[in-house]
Model the fold of this input.
Amino acid sequence: MTRTFLLHSAAGLKGLVLASLFIHALPGKDAFAQANYAAFELAQENNWERQLSFEDLNGDGLKDIVHGSYQSGIGRELHVYHQRANGSFSPTAQRIEIKSEIIAIGFAELRPDPGMEMLLFSSSGVFSLSSAQEGYGGNIKQLLEWDLIAAVPDLERVQFISGIQDIDNDGEIDLLLPGDGVYGLFKGRGNEVFELLSTFGTDNESLPVAQRGRANTGLDARIAINAEEGLVIELSAESNAYFDGFVEQWGSTLEPARSLLRAESWMATALLAQLNDDSLADIAYINEGADGLGQLNIHFQDAETGFNETPHWSGSIDTRGDIRLVDVDNDKLVDLLRITGQSNDYTVYLYRNRNGTFDLKTPDQVMRFSGYDVRVNIISLLQDSAPVMNVSYYTIPVVDAIRNASINRTLLIYGSENSESNQFFNRRPDSRLDESFSAANVRGLSEQMSLQYDIDGDGRNDAIYVTDNGTLAAKRIGEDLSIESEPFWEYISTRSVFEFQVMDLNQDAKPDLLLRHATSTTILVAAP
Amino acid sequence: MTRFLQIAQRLFGAGLVTFGGSLFAAEINFDQQEMRLAATTEDLIVADLNGDGLQDLIAIVEGTLQIYFHTEDGFDFNNYETINFPGQAIGWDLSKQYSESGNTSIIALIDGREVLAWSFDGQTPLAPIVIKSNLNGFLSKGVNRLHFSRDINGDEIDDFLIPGAGAINLHISSGISSAREFEYQAPLSVRSELRMRTNLNEDSLERRTGQSVRIPMMELRDVNGDGFQDLVSRTEEELKVFIANNSAIAYFPTEASYSLDILEIEERLGEFDIDNLDFSNLTGLLALTHEEILEDVDGDGIDDLLLREGGKVSLFGGEPNGMNFTQPRQVLRSGGNVLSTFLYDENEDGLKDLWLWRVESISVGDIFVWLALSGSIAVEAFIYPNEGERFARRPSRKVSIDLKFPSVISLSSTFRDFEQEILEAGNGEEVFSNLANLDGDRSQQDLILMIGNQIRFFLNSIQLDNEPENETDLFLGAVNYSRQRDNYEFNIRDVIENISIAGTRHLDTVAGRTADSAIELSRPVVNGAVIPVTLNRDERQDVIIFTETDGSHIQGLLLLSD
Done:
């Protein structure tokens, strides 16, 4: 259960002054490092649930905090903290009731009034609502009818749907909605009018229903203490079991069922991505092929007709591991990245997008890593520059573990300048950073170093990380892709930082920050 | 070569006798029949709908029920009866309550508002009758299997559990009126905890979009020893108990007989804050945990309440109509990191004793060492004997279990090997297996294996003697618990070494043994299953075997015991 406490004292001017005391813009560096922030702290008992969004609801060009809240007796509400000109937020929240039929909420500019409208998704349709008007009467407007794939609202939480966009580049917001067995593309005609343009299914219709989405392998562990068995530790391995639970023997004398109801409705996720060179976003999804392997499917967008019912291209792919669409070669088309591995043995496969098709049998580059929890990111350090590949992983040298109770974390950056023909990245890393962690600096393990953000607004991304003390710091990344040894910036918060995000909350080109702590979130807006 | 492949080779490399097309053996006889269902079949329910003692098959296909009747000649998969439900949101179940002949009826909650029942005259579906209207239920769209018909108050008349928004509404039947109408007591609405997972904002290619919903069945049991089922409602916020009164107009009171505010307990214990975490004693976090156990401590047949808050254990006495919360009967406080408590009769005096489990302190440094080296954790149970009204103030016995485990590196490598083994099992010929009672010998189970294009039967090959015979054998069975021994060791490596892949679990048992009988199929099975069921009138199980699937049909065999 989530309970929200409105914390007002940290907001406003007091927060602005307070925050500036804890910023260390370390001297001796020629680039500008932001030193003043307005801080706003939002307390949440369970801070790991993502019910937070940043949207400009009143059209002043400043993004407001939108936070999903539940209180027994009151129910679900959206709490909106409006951003002020000085980067602080309103000390009290505008409260917007979330009606019990609403399953999810998104945000888009739909009405001529300034500011984003809320899109309310129910099991049978989508509605718009403006936060500028009080209540639902005379405010809510039904945009379309659609049987959403999720039919039951969670009475304590609401989902935020992000990425609502103009899909066909005509200047109007469109909607791609998962429904009863199919996705529907609704073309926005302006003035809050939407028209169903096309539908397509993402599950493989050639497979029996009993087989779709049921293939599963893996290991299960159970640890329990109870009066029947005492201490129990069980491990089991499951292979494919398509017909698990398919047959039920009914008998009035049998034990009553353990569940009153079990209902499931799932389909392969369709992602919008630039897959061919016509500048219109296309669709990609992975379902299960008749051969038991995964199948990557691509539907190209047609500006007039939307998406075909059947894919334009399909290919078999091993779906083990993490599969991502990302532009690896800076040609504005997404390529395919697959990371697979177990234990300390990982392999990264990179497949080049050839105008909407992939040779999935022959990856264009294969890279192997020996370490635990291997993570890969493809990042452009400068806008429009050739991306680099950032790989991080852990190693556990036995001697270090025994002697110092420590493990190592390695961060590698691969550039592309010396890559071999048809490959994406250099065979050897351009830079390497090794760090050691033990009980003394365990807080530094909470999140891996990120190269995704430019903290000082100089146009070049920095290496941002959680320090051994749980503060947030940034180091510069040199032209040679090496990471400087000393940070040039540090934010010392009163609470340990576990996650962070750099955002633009007020169009001033100065990076703003979100710091997630165990039971609260701090929003730092760069102040002039 | 992996262990799985070695076993499979040993098993199937042996020159086994096969019998093409039909099955016969000295011990078992089957009538073998081909089965064909639509590929759009979502589930298959086995039930006798016309009271002839032969179980029929109900297939859920695209929002309808297709019924294949079982006759003396078996099944005809070319002919079926169809039930088309009205409405958009359907929850259906089976009940013997609504057919005049006492046969099983199909009953359905339609759009949360009314309950209809379909009965059968032979193989002919009769027009549905309305059982109850003006309900206030809520269901997701589509046709859902809903176990909503159940006798709650022990009068052998089925009652209704109707899911609503965050609640279950109980409609207890008062029987059939003189006008042949079903009558119900005033409904009782009880909060229910919906287990729900919704994913509408996925940005990962390999994850799926949609929703799963589970409503756990409510806990109905006699907590005050009067012979009638009471209602225990547990949510994250509260524990509520409704004590039944069988002689009252309403079986359950409208307000809970007693309740416990779990949110208040959690507020008292405090919340997890990483900034105040003691890294030298991570297990200190257990001080934030709580347990509520409703069980009879003093042997009067009425459940008492054992409430554990961190290391503090409070015992409240149960009464015929409630719980005495004015003052706990006993409060025990334990130092250390209390992991859990439960009640189990240790000294065999017929009264349940209190087992209080503690775990040693674990530091972040320990965890770093365990990454590379095997380790152990001491788990101790302190047993407070039950003295009748309350527990002894001091424990009479301490049971220690040394929980040994391999290093994380080693575990990770072992799991990688298992993943590889599962993968190879999937790449090679898949093995489908299940246990059944195919012959008259119930003391041992029979193993059915399907691999490639063969189905093999190993009669009485699986011994039941590994199953615990009684409660005492089950309790701490993994460490061979006895009252005479206080110190035990439990090595997780032993568990890992005995792990088996689900489809191949019993292969070791029959390795090298000749099958008692076999069926040869026309082609190898890729996506199949072996499922024992009861379909005909004898006590021996029958078998549904799925052998082949394609875009239009699911095909298989029915083996009907003869």
Q: What stands out?
A: Residues 12-21 of chain A form the longest helix (10 residues).
